[in-house]
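A reminder from the course coordinator: this example appears on the midterm review sheet, so study it carefully.

Given structure:
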């Protein structure tokens, strides 16, 4: 029964407040946020750098995968090659820069194939 009384007292009417002008807030980018999009900054972990020989070896694996399986999406290439995804992406960029790849777009899907 005490619960019912608490429920009745918690249902108070809202009283309209007179219009009070709130202080203006400037959002000119001078806020103390840690990043430009407002997201908290990630903890600094050691950054990995890839050297040309690593990228070149993975580019060879990407080449062999595309030669054996034909046209594929970048996601399926990443799954086929046993290397970190960002390294596979770098290898695809390497091959594309050397004009070894062709990108075929069909709707929202982009597939990669050898030239």
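Designed residues:
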């Amino acid at each position: 029964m005490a619960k019912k009384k608490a429920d009745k007292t918690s249902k108070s009417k809202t009283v309209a407040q007179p219009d009070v002008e709130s202080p203006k807030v400037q959002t000119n980018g001078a806020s103390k946020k840690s990043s430009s999009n407002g997201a908290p900054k990630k903890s600094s972990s050691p950054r990995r750098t890839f050297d040309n020989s690593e990228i070149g070896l993975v580019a060879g694996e990407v080449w062999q995968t595309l030669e054996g399986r034909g046209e594929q999406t970048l996601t399926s290439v990443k799954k086929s090659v046993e290397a970190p995804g960002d390294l596979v992406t770098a290898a695809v960029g390497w091959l594309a820069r050397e004009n070894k790849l062709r990108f075929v777009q069909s709707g929202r899907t982009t597939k990669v194939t050898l030239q």
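Residues 61 and 82 are 9 Å apart (CA to CA). The mean pLDDT is 80.
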